[in-house]
């Protein structure tokens, strides 16, 4: 279907917004009135600019507080006001005006009067070749639901009057969208799509500040869009997103994020299927960019890793234990995901993740269809093609197979290094990878991992840091063999420490902690207060509590099972976590993250 975006969703001047929308491949725009009023371009120039960019102007909006004021004077003035807007629209070449339900205290609760007024407006619009789309604002004075707006449109019964459905207003009020199917498709004049995180707050504030693109929040926007299409709606899918972060972010980048969201929506609804996602089946490797491998050698050896290989063409070492593989890359060009604040530039940074993928070529096709930058294809020494795309934060994602029978393996690129097998610590694989996102790319990143890799996302969590609040959101595949935890530091220039880490899985955290302590590995200390609170919260057996306290192991429990975990000291801005999941525990010990962050602050700054 045609795709549009409201100019309010993008940052910049009207002309910058149009350029960004066209650059991302949108077919049209909704012009938000304030953007036009503030523009130095006159309507004819805007019309020309849009046309030059290949954009149609699909809607002009909003026209406010029109209907159901009982005063004839007010009606006259409103109709005169509308005539002025029709004139602007004619200059713009726009033929659809959005009228949102009145919030005026003077409006009365009278559907017949509202219908009469809208009929009069539509009749005047018709003479200009203009149509009216009436939309229920969730906070409208008397009309706040889509079915009520539709009843009034039906009552008014004018060919130039239809309704505008906006997924935010419908889903934020928990209205049942099923009723959309009852509306004749040709009377749905416009469809605005926006998602939002599920937060309990005043609906107007929620709408004006926290909307996001479909797939980034908690609403079933795709389901709603499907209902409208089934009802016969054939206009554009249009994104209308009021969001404080997008208002400041780079418009071109936001527009691409927006387009990815619509493509993913069309895919998931079957409107325009894309190559199916190839959900990765685990982590093949995690690659750290390091200026100097030395500080990590001791840590990896203490953790029971052996240096098994050296890349035949690049300064990259392979360290292994069980199915856990860590690459250390000292090439100056590595390190794309080094936090943009510049903090810790010298320290290790997660630069790439190898994803165990049944069909790497299909993975890339999916990623490309969702506008992920595809990185130049590399060939391994063994002639195995290595396909990679860039995640929004610059982390390289490699689609690969590790020692699958009958397939080339990336490990053939590594020449074996003679080594004494390290004394293992019982680490079997990588449990999860925690990536810190730039604060203004967080929603983009969560949509990326969900849509490109087909991961499912947990709810966002807020985690208190001594110097701010982190948002955190985990993504995983169905069996938990791939887990990526995204977090965001409070803001640019904040004193929070943007840390990244790799969590390693073990079947016995107590044994692993004991062995690491015996080897003198530097582990993160946990305050005694934590164990007093743990006793109060979970009442572990006294012997277990004593062991956890002695070894500095943290504990959590959910409805499925238990979680025991501990951390190494940080190297630069990087650390390892060792985790033991039992009984299908699904989380990440979020409750303990506050204690961890506080301990790391004193650890890092000391
Ligand atoms: O927040 C508003 O006022 C507003 C205006 C126009 C819309 O289409 C909308 O969904 C909200
Ligand atoms: Mg709207």
How would you describe what is shown here?
- The protein is of the alpha/beta class and about 600 residues long.
- It is built from 17 helices and 26 strands.
- Strands 14-15-16-13-9-12-11-10-17 form a 9-stranded mixed sheet, covered by helices on one side. Strands 18, 19, 20, 21, 22, 23, 24, 25 and 26 form a 9-stranded mixed sheet that branches. The chain has an 8-stranded parallel barrel with strand order 1-2-3-4-5-6-7-8, surrounded by 7 helices.
- Strand 5 (about 130-135), helix 6 (about 145-155) and strand 6 (about 160-165) form a beta-alpha-beta unit.
- The longest helix has 21 residues, at about 70-90.
- The radius of gyration is 28 Å and the shape is elongated.
- The termini are far apart.
- The model is unreliable at about 335-345 (pLDDT under 50).
- Bound molecules: 3,4-dihydroxybenzoic acid and magnesium ion (MG).
- Magnesium ion binds near residues 135, 166 and 240.
- 3,4-dihydroxybenzoic acid binds next to strand 3, strand 4 and helix 8.
Structural class determined from secondary elements? alpha/beta
CATH 2nd-level architecture of the largest domain: Alpha-Beta Barrel
Q: What is the average of the pLDDT values?
A: 93
Report how far apart the termini are.
57 Å
Cofactor: a divalent metal cation
Pfam families: AP_endonuc_2 (PF01261), Glyoxalase (PF00903), Glyoxalase_5 (PF14696)
Protein name: 3-dehydroshikimate dehydratase
InterPro entries: DSD (IPR043700), Glyas_Bleomycin-R_OHBP_Dase (IPR029068), Glyas_Fos-R_dOase_dom (IPR004360), IolE/XylAMocC-like (IPR050312), VOC_core (IPR037523), Xyl_isomerase-like_sf (IPR036237), Xyl_isomerase-like_TIM-brl (IPR013022)
């Amino acid at each position: 279907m045609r795709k549009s975006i409201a100019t309010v969703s993008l940052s910049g001047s009207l002309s910058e917004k149009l350029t960004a929308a066209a650059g991302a491949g949108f077919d049209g725009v909704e012009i938000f009135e304030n953007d036009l009023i503030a523009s130095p371009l006159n309507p004819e120039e805007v019309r020309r600019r849009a046309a030059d960019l290949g954009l149609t102007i699909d809607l002009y909006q909003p026209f406010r507080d029109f209907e159901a004021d009982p005063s004839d004077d007010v009606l006259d003035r409103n109709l005169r006001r509308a005539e002025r807007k029709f004139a602007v629209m004619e200059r713009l070449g726009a033929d659809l005006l959005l009228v949102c339900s009145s919030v005026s205290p003077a409006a009365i609760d009278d559907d017949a009067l509202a219908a009469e007024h809208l009929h009069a407006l539509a009749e005047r619009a018709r003479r200009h070749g203009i149509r009216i789309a009436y939309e229920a604002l969730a906070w409208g004075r008397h009309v706040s639901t889509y079915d009520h707006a539709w009843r009034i449109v039906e009552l008014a019964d004018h060919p130039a009057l239809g309704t505008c459905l906006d997924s935010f207003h419908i889903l934020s009020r928990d209205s049942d969208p099923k009723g959309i199917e009852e509306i004749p498709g040709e009377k749905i004049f416009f469809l605005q799509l926006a998602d939002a995180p599920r937060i309990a707050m005043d609906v107007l504030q929620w709408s004006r500040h926290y909307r996001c693109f479909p797939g980034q929040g908690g609403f079933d926007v795709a389901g709603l869009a499907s209902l409208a299409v089934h009802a016969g709606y054939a206009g554009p899918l249009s994104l209308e997103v009021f969001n404080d972060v997008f208002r400041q972010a780079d418009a071109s980048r936001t527009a691409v994020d927006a387009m990815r969201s619509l493509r993913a929506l069309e895919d998931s609804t079957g409107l325009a299927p894309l190559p199916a996602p190839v959900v990765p089946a685990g982590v093949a490797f995690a690659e750290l960019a390091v200026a100097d491998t030395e500080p990590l050698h001791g840590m990896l050896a203490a953790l029971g890793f052996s240096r098994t290989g050296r890349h035949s063409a690049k300064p990259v070492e392979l360290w292994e234990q069980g199915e856990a593989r860590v690459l250390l890359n000292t090439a100056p060009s590595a390190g794309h995901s080094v936090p943009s604040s510049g903090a810790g530039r010298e320290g290790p940074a997660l630069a790439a993740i190898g994803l165990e993928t049944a069909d790497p070529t299909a993975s890339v096709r999916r990623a490309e269809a969702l506008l992920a930058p595809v990185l130049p294809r590399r060939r391994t020494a063994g002639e195995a093609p290595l396909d990679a795309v860039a995640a929004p934060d610059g982390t390289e994602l490699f689609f690969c197979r590790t020692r699958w029978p009958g397939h080339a393996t990336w490990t053939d690129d590594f020449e074996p290094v003679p080594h004494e097998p390290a004394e293992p610590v019982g680490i079997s694989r990588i449990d999860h990878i925690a990536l810190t996102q730039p604060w203004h790319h967080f929603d983009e990143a969560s949509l990326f991992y969900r849509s490109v890799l087909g991961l499912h996302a947990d709810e966002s969590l807020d985690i208190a840091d001594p110097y701010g609040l982190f948002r955190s959101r985990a993504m995983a595949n169905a069996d938990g063999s791939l887990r990526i935890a995204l977090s965001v530091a409070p803001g640019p220039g904040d004193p929070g420490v943007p840390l990244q880490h790799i969590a390693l899985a073990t079947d016995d955290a107590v044994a692993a902690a004991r062995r690491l302590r015996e080897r003198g590995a530097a582990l993160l200390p946990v305050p005694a207060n934590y164990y007093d609170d743990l006793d109060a919260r979970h009442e572990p057996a006294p012997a277990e509590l004593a062991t956890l306290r002695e070894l500095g192991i943290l504990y959590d429990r959910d409805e499925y099972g238990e979680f025991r975990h501990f951390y190494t000291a940080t190297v630069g801005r990087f650390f390892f976590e060792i985790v033991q999941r039992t009984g299908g525990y699904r989380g990440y010990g979020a409750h303990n993250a506050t204690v961890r962050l506080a301990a790391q602050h004193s650890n890092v700054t000391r």
